[in-house]
UniProtKB/TrEMBL annotation:
This is 3-isopropylmalate dehydrogenase. It is found in: Cytoplasm. Its EC number is 1.1.1.85. Pfam families: Iso_dh. Belongs to the isocitrate and isopropylmalate dehydrogenases family. LeuB type 1 subfamily. Catalyzes the oxidation of 3-carboxy-2-hydroxy-4-methylpentanoate (3-isopropylmalate) to 3-carboxy-4-methyl-2-oxopentanoate. The product decarboxylates to 4-methyl-2 oxopentanoate. Residues 5-343 form the Isopropylmalate dehydrogenase-like domain. The lineage of its organism: Bacteria, Thermotogati, Deinococcota, Deinococci, Thermales.
Length: 351
């Protein structure tokens, strides 16, 4: 059994509380599924600014680059809002993402059984929603050149190369293979040449994944369908700009920020973190919802360690705990600690 080494960056606000929960669940999953995991904590964000004077200290950089995966809590808080750029927690996050060379951002949005009432969608539409958005992160119009701002005009360039599309599409096909075998590729091929190349590249790669059913949608239609018929979709692959918009749209479907996980995969070790921020209003009160962090740990098992079975078991344990008694943000009375124990119990009971 090879040992997997996880660099844990608890960060600020509720970050340390939800990360602690996720690490406990990871350790339990490792025990149940026979994995040798070592989790080590490193300073990052505001916590690192206070301890080491930099948001992404050298010690932490070295650790994450040697790790098999990185688990991050959340960073930031009002005390750093007016700090110069180099002394802001957010600067550390930008440096971290750059160091890991992530090119694919994975954002699942699932409406868990019993939580349909929290979704802004009608319960009968929300029931069973379970999508994964795969967004390209390093290319497209956010980075394309030329770009510029003049007195009376401004311009940006949407550009993608075939290898850029291929590598992110491969991540999406692999995810679809592990999930329900359905991939929806989103572009604007009726108006943009980039969309044509995108569509052609995805269709060609589809030959290598005969088990995955591929569908193409225009981004405008997709925005509509995600609200009207979200259960039609499984994995949704798209570029940087459209992915930015669609992942925000999808993130409101479950109805709570606290339940959303994310993964960033790239050339270096993968990064796993909840979508929510440091929630300074809840920090230290022991009532933060650790679901997003725990589900990020489940993604770590699936995508970084290739242990999808363990990842699914964690997801199911979380679903069970949410049905039993959630944290106050979802109308329950469980503390972070009590909720985490419910997840651990469900995980051990099932095994
Ligand atoms: P950031 O600026 O870091 O992106 P934000 O300030 O926009 O973050 P969050 O800190 O993510 O937003 O959260 C906004 C509010 O949502 C919090 O103040 C909190 O009340 C609620 N919230 C966020 N995450 C959680 C959680 N895990 N459990 C319970 N409530 C949460
Ligand atoms: Mg904030």
């Amino acid at each position: 059994m090879t040992r997997a080494y996880i660099a844990v960056l608890p960060g600020d606000g509720i970050g340390p509380e939800v990360t602690e929960a996720a690490v406990r669940v990871l350790a339990a999953a490792a025990e149940v599924y026979g994995l040798d995991l070592e989790c080590e904590r490193f300073p990052f964000g505001g916590a690192a600014l206070e301890r080491c004077g930099a948001p992404f200290p050298e010690e932490t950089r070295k650790a994450v680059l040697e790790a098999d995966a990185v688990l991050l809590g959340a960073i930031g808080g009002p005390q750093w809002d007016d700090a110069p750029r180099a002394l802001r927690p957010e600067t550390g996050l930008l440096e971290l993402r750059k160091a890991l060379r992530a090119f694919a951002n994975l954002r699942p949005a699932r409406v868990l059984p019993g939580l349909e009432g929290h979704s802004p969608l009608r319960p009968e539409v929300a029931r069973g929603v379970d999508v994964l958005i795969v967004r390209e992160l390093t290319g497209g119009i956010y980075f394309g050149r030329p770009r510029g701002l003049g007195e009376t005009e401004a311009w940006n360039t949407m550009r993608y190369t075939r290898p850029e599309v291929e590598r992110v599409a491969r991540v999406a096909f692999e995810a679809a293979r592990r999930r329900r075998g359905h991939l929806t590729s989103v572009d604007k091929a009726n108006v943009l040449e980039v969309g044509e190349l995108w569509r052609r590249t995805v269709s060609e790669l589809a030959q290598a994944y005969p088990g995955v059913r591929v569908e193409h949608q225009y981004v405008d239609a997709m925005a509509m369908l995600l609200v009207q018929q979200p259960t039609r979709f499984d994995v949704i692959l798209t570029g940087n700009l459209f992915g930015d918009i669609l992942s925000d749209l999808a993130s409101v479907l479950p109805g709570s920020l606290g339940v959303l996980p994310s993964a960033s995969l790239g050339e270096g070790p993968s990064l796993f973190e909840p979508v929510h921020g440091s929630a300074p209003d809840l920090a230290g009160r022991g009532i933060a919802n650790p679901t997003g962090a725990i589900l990020s740990a489940a993604m770590l098992l699936t995508y970084a360690l290739d242990r999808a079975e363990a990842g699914r078991a964690v997801e199911e344990a979380v679903a069970q705990a949410l049905a039993q008694n959630p944290t106050p943000d979802l109308g329950g009375t469980a503390s972070t600690e009590a909720f985490t124990r419910q997840v651990l119990e469900a995980l051990y009971t099932k095994a």
